[in-house]
Amino acid sequence: MTDDAPEPPSGLRAMLPDLAPWRASRDFRRLWYAGLISNFGSFLTFVALPVQLKDLTGSAAAVGAIGAVELIPLLVFGLYGGALADAWDKRKLIVWTEAGQGLLSVALLLNALLPHPAVWPLYVVAALSSALVSVQRPALDSLWPRIVAHDHLPAAASLNSFRWTVGGVAGPALAGVVVAYAGLGWAYGADLLTFAVSVVLVVRIAASPASHEAAKPSLKAIAEGARYAWGRKELLGTYAVDLAAMFLAMPLAVLPFLADELNAQWSLGLMYASVPLGALLVSLVSGWTARIHRHGRMVVLSAALWGLAIAAAGIMSNVWLVLLFLTVAGGCDMVSGIFRGIMWNQTIPDELRGRLAGIELLSYSVGPTVGQVRSGGFAAWWGVRTSVWSGGVLCAGAVGLLALCLPKLMTYDARTDEHAAQVRGQRAAAQV
């Protein structure tokens, strides 16, 4: 924080989310609402798509293959999308990609309404959706620091996490009911409606053109961002920790089969909602995060606890204990996400923010995507519960090893870090 920033609140009030970004920025509020609405619909499809694949194929490997078809678009468009975010108007990128996602919802809806829905459109839509998200997320992630004051970025990270988790809890929970009693078409139709509302909100925010220092989108520009990231070992540490955690301990692809194995098919929507629920509970009391300065240590600790909680969920035979540990895991993942976001937003210069957001996208998206393949393959070979608990144990071990190999991540302190001080200075100069 700046020297003249107000002291953080104390007591119970200090535990509540800080609403300063909400009060100070109209564009933050509009973008926040748009994200809340579209996330809600996306989580409906997030549940409906693997359920439809499971019903059509009966194969855990086929469900896990969703991650395989999403991987190449993530790798290609994540990096190039970051370069586009630095060179183009960020608002326009967000609007057009949001509209494209709506068209993909139309395709899923039409396929679901066929007498005999086909399997291949599900994979095609998953791949195209991955490409659109990979272009949109760097623009979105690099836009927040432009519309929020520097000292409000930790609070904005918590509020954005809260927005995501509300959709993550309500969407899957409702999806389980909608798919079971109304049908897949209703889930896809609701997703389409949320994208339409989101586009209307996003077009009303202010334009966000490229910084005059930003490089045009090219392989050279992408390489420049990669060189910067490589020189920031503490940033590399956040990417590596999240990648390991998501690749090794993301069990979402096998949850439909885990519910069957526990003879609790009714619990599938709750399983999908449990991880976001844990994240929501943490975001509701996220005020304490503003008083933490050693963000790297919190990233490592919470990622290791995520793995241990997933391992416990895989061991338990009681469905309520499974739900409990999935909720705990979600809370740990939220803590890690909040502190990763704070480090990224407070230390990366504006002219590189889009390209670094593309690298960040790979760290938190490639892991879950490939993790679906890993969990589905392990489940096919050694059983569903073994796939879950072994991934959690491997995650905790990998995170511990990364902590030993990346000391700069463990010693990072926002109060003394030179990059954080540089970005604070840039923001202060821009406001003069």
Question: What topology does this entry show?
Answer:
Blueprint: H1 20-24, H2 26-57, H3 60-87, H4 90-112, H5 120-147, H6 153-181, H7 184-202, H8 219-231, H9 233-249, H10 255-261, H11 268-284, H12 295-315, H13 319-347, H14 353-382, H15 384-405, H16 407-411, H17 418-431
Helix pairs in contact: 2-3, 2-6, 2-7, 3-5, 3-14, 4-5, 4-7, 5-14, 6-7, 6-11, 6-13, 9-12, 9-14, 9-15, 11-13, 12-13, 12-15, 14-15
Describe the structure.
The protein has 432 residues and is mainly α. The chain is 78% helix and 0% strand. It has 17 helices and no strands. Helix 11 (268-284) packs across helix 13 (319-347). Residues 1-6 have low confidence and may be disordered.
Could you say which structural class the secondary elements and strand pairing correspond to? mainly alpha
Please report which band the strand proportion falls in: under 5%, 5-15%, 15-25%, 25-35%, 35-45% or over 45%: under 5%
Largest sheet, strands/sense/barrel? none
- H/I helix tally: 17
The helix/strand series, from N terminus to C terminus, equals HHHHHHHHHHHHHHHHH
Helical content stands at over 70%
